[in-house]
């Protein structure tokens, strides 16, 4: 099995809790690829790959936060309130960035629960509400599609596969793409 296929398979395995025997196998095999396997207290695995192992366009696991999140069961009203507040907060910051910086190809639009950020040659980000699933979906030109659930206790939208929050990912990617520090949600 080539390195890329193994890395993809290992990432899929890392998204679930594994028994100790499988964890040891993944840890041993991953070390040959230059990957570091970390096991949380809840038993969920996280993989950190050496950047030389995977091409920059492939998924590379990264640890973001040490908090554990739980998807809340919201009423439709609560979901719309939380998702609208988040998208409108992100929109406010993105509009301010557009007003304060001259960025080639920069455009931000928000209509009917869909926020679109165009960065010219650096791609387009789309965030949209998904009321049936009570999620916010993100399409990123750098990291691809993600589905975020809401944790009402922490007041955060999080990605269940690797426990990162929507603001962590967007802050990191937009800071890199724009060349200055971006903080969408504090």
From TrEMBL:
<comment type="similarity">
    <text>Belongs to the frataxin family.</text>
</comment>
<keyword id="KW-0409">Iron storage</keyword>
<dbReference type="InterPro" id="IPR017789">
    <property type="entry name" value="Frataxin"/>
</dbReference>
<dbReference type="GO" id="GO:0008199">
    <property type="term" value="F:ferric iron binding"/>
</dbReference>
<dbReference type="Pfam" id="PF01491">
    <property type="entry name" value="Frataxin_Cyay"/>
</dbReference>
<dbReference type="InterPro" id="IPR002908">
    <property type="entry name" value="Frataxin/CyaY"/>
</dbReference>
<dbReference type="GO" id="GO:0016226">
    <property type="term" value="P:iron-sulfur cluster assembly"/>
</dbReference>
<keyword id="KW-0809">Transit peptide</keyword>
<dbReference type="GO" id="GO:0006826">
    <property type="term" value="P:iron ion transport"/>
</dbReference>
<keyword id="KW-0496">Mitochondrion</keyword>
<dbReference type="InterPro" id="IPR020895">
    <property type="entry name" value="Frataxin_CS"/>
</dbReference>
<dbReference type="GO" id="GO:0034986">
    <property type="term" value="F:iron chaperone activity"/>
</dbReference>
<keyword id="KW-0410">Iron transport</keyword>
<keyword id="KW-0813">Transport</keyword>
<dbReference type="GO" id="GO:0006879">
    <property type="term" value="P:intracellular iron ion homeostasis"/>
</dbReference>
<dbReference type="InterPro" id="IPR036524">
    <property type="entry name" value="Frataxin/CyaY_sf"/>
</dbReference>
<protein>
    <recommendedName>
        <fullName>ferroxidase</fullName>
        <ecNumber>1.16.3.1</ecNumber>
    </recommendedName>
</protein>
<dbReference type="GO" id="GO:0008198">
    <property type="term" value="F:ferrous iron binding"/>
</dbReference>
<keyword id="KW-0560">Oxidoreductase</keyword>
<dbReference type="GO" id="GO:0004322">
    <property type="term" value="F:ferroxidase activity"/>
</dbReference>
<dbReference type="GO" id="GO:0051537">
    <property type="term" value="F:2 iron, 2 sulfur cluster binding"/>
</dbReference>
<dbReference type="GO" id="GO:0005739">
    <property type="term" value="C:mitochondrion"/>
</dbReference>
<keyword id="KW-0406">Ion transport</keyword>
<keyword id="KW-0408">Iron</keyword>
């Amino acid at each position: 099995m080539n390195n890329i296929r193994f890395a993809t398979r290992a990432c899929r395995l890392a998204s679930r809790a594994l028994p100790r025997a499988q964890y040891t196998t993944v840890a041993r095999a991953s070390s040959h690829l230059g990957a570091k396997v970390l096991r949380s207290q809840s038993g969920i695995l996280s993989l950190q790959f050496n950047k030389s192992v995977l091409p920059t366009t492939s998924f590379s696991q990264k640890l973001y936060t040490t908090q554990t999140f739980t998807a809340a069961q919201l009423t439709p009203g609560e979901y719309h309130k939380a998702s609208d507040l988040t998208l409108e907060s992100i929109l406010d910051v993105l509009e301010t960035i557009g007003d304060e910086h001259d960025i080639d190809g920069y455009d931000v639009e928000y209509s009917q629960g869909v926020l679109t950020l165009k960065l010219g040659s650096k791609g387009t980000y789309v965030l949209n509400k998904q009321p049936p699933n009570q999620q916010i979906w993100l399409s990123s030109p750098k990291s691809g599609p993600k589905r975020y659930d809401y944790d009402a206790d922490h007041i955060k939208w999080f990605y269940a596969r690797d426990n990162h929050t929507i603001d962590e990912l967007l802050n990191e990617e937009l800071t890199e793409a724009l060349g200055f520090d971006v903080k969408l949600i504090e």
